[in-house]
Design brief:
The complex is a heterodimer of chains A (about 110) and B (about 110).
Chain A (H helix, E strand, L loop, with lengths): L3 E4 L2 E4 L4 E8 L5 E7 L6 E7 L2 E5 L6 E7 L2 E7 L7 E8 L7 E3 L3 E5 L1
Parallel strand pairs in A: 2-11
Antiparallel strand pairs in A: 1-3, 3-8, 4-5, 4-9, 5-6, 7-8, 9-10, 9-11
Chain B lengths: L3 E4 L2 E5 L4 E7 L3 E9 L5 E7 L2 E5 L2 E6 L4 E6 L8 E9 L8 E3 L3 E6 L1
Parallel strand pairs in B: 2-11
Antiparallel strand pairs in B: 1-3, 3-8, 4-5, 4-9, 6-7, 7-8, 9-10, 9-11
The chains are: A mainly beta (about 110), B mainly beta (about 110).
Chain lengths: ~110, ~110
């Protein structure tokens, strides 16, 4: 365990389903991130939250909706996804600005059928 | 062309060999990270560098800011070192941005 916990580890969902991914950290970090990792591609930043405020949305389609109720928890709400959204979704946390490095979760392997 | 390039993309080594993975970048950075990703997906941070050299066990990371190049070395490699090694750079300075740009990774397989 790295200190960043993601659930579920695996998720299979239909294109009409609604599901949520959860990320939790108790490292005292105040920045949290969602990344997408598709096969053969570099990790892509999706969203950044600093002190619960969204500070970056990397042109992510609206079918992905993040939520950060407090500095320790981050959600990614999913609805009407496409098969090409199948990927590994990774959460990370850090101090604001990335000082001291980043801690990653184990990821959620999402398959859209 | 990616802003962060890694080489080689794939590397197979025999147990005990000395391994080098290279990372070149084309942007100004405040820090460079080396990450390890095992099958199953979880990522572990190995090093964060802004200059010089760092060592942790059998792992050594170096960076040359002028050349915009970093290397990750593994001495006395072992099958448990088999993983994807990812280079990532943090652009800019200050707290305003904490965005990482990632390389595509190097898949290392160490055979017994």
């Amino acid at each position: 365990e790295t200190g960043v916990t993601q659930t579920p580890r695996h998720l299979v969902m239909g294109m009409t389903n609604k599901k949520s991914l959860k990320c939790e950290q108790h490292l005292g970090h105040n920045a949290m991130y969602w990344y997408k990792q598709s096969a053969k591609k570099p990790l892509e930043l999706m969203f950044v939250y600093n002190f619960k405020e969204q500070t970056e949305n990397n042109s992510v389609p609206s079918r992905f909706s993040p939520e950060c109720p407090n500095s320790s928890h981050l959600f990614l709400h999913l609805h009407t996804l496409q098969p090409e959204d199948s990927a590994l979704y990774l959460c990370a946390s850090s101090q604001a600005g990335g000082a001291g490095g980043y801690t990653f979760g184990s990821g959620t392997r999402l398959t859209v059928v | 062309k990616n802003e962060v390039e890694q080489s080689p993309q794939n590397l197979t080594a025999q147990e005990g060999e000395f391994i080098t993975i290279n990372c070149s970048y084309s942007v100004g950075i405040s820090a460079l990270h080396w990450l390890q990703q095992h099958p199953g997906g979880g990522i572990v941070s190995l090093f964060m560098l802004s200059s010089g050299k760092k060592k942790h066990g059998r792992l050594i990371a170096t960076i040359n800011i002028q050349e915009k190049h970093s290397s990750l070395h593994i001495t006395a490699s072992h099958p448990r070192d088999s993983a994807v090694y990812i280079c990532a750079v943090k652009r800019g300075w200050g707290g305003a941005t904490n965005k990482l740009i990632f390389g595509t990774g190097t898949l290392l397989a160490v055979q017994p």
